[in-house]
Amino acid sequence: MLSKIKNIFIVLLLVLVITQFLRPEKNEASYDSIASFEEATAVPAEVKTILQNKCYDCHSNTTRYPWFMEVSPVTHYMAYYTEKAKEHFNVSGWEIYTDKQKDRKLEEFIEELEKKEMPLKPYTWIHGELSNTDTEKLISWAKETRIKIKETPKDSVNIKEIDSTTVDSIKTENIK
User: Fold this and answer.
1) Are 176 and 85 in contact (CB under 8 A)?
2) Sequence ranges of the domains in the chain
3) Residue 84 near residue 77, CB atoms below 8 Å
4) Which of 136, 49, 152, 175 is nearest to 97 (CA)?
5) Distance CA 135, CA 125 (A)
6) What is the DSSP letter of 28?
7) DSSP E strands: which ranges in 60-160?
8) What is the pTM of this model?
9) Distance between CA 110 and CA 132 in Å, rounded?
10) Which of 60, 100, 141, 158 lies in disulfide reach of 56, CB 3.0 to 4.6 Å?
11) Are 82 and 58 a contacting pair, CB within 8 Å?
């Protein structure tokens, strides 16, 4: 019986050592993508601080890694949840969202904050809870931003949304 436990312990130790060398890719892009989000959404300074301290690690392409994130399996756990978080809302991808998607992302952001489902509990163990005051500031900012997005004039056409056949047919009609 003791030799079985010893063998299990050795196998687990070997797995732990091997996983130290099999690391997921880090989420470390430049701050430029976040800066463009902040500029586009006119983030006030105090809201920016809250976002930097409580949101961007998981919801952007720029994560600050504490020393213990270098230890497996914590590094794999962090990589998995960061990837999942970015699938739901990634401020680094703000420019590629349509206005409708931006509105929906902010609506979901507000819902998660109101239900107190964000930030996730494991994140708050290290970084602390989001205070009620901070939550209210984030919700207020997100609601104001949603209104601005809805009020943005739709006169300008986004070139990315026009396919080449539409452009070709317009040119052809104008030539005839």
Assistant:
1) no
2) 24-152
3) no
4) 152
5) 17
6) B
7) none
8) 0.68
9) 13
10) 60
11) yes
pLDDT per position as a tens digit, 90-146: 998 898 899 999 999 999 999 999 999 888 787 777 778 889 999 999 999 999 999
Burial of 98 (0-12, 13-18, 19+ CB in 10 A): exposed
Q: What secondary structure does DSSP assign to 121-160, as a single string?
A: HHHHHHH-PPPHHHHHHHHHHHHHHHHHHHHS---SPPGG
Q: What pLDDT score does 9 carry?
A: 81
pLDDT digits 0-9 by tens, 8-51 = 888 888 877 777 777 667 666 666 778 889 998 999 999 999 99
Residue with tokens 């463009």: 36
The answer to whether 27 touches 33, Cβ cutoff 8 Å, is no
Tallying the residues shown for the chain, one arrives at: 176
The label of the residue with tokens 């989000």 reads 37
pLDDT at residue 36, as a whole number: 85
Sort 60 into a burial class: Cβ within 10 Å, 0-12 / 13-18 / 19+.
Answer: buried
Residue with tokens 């914590």: 74
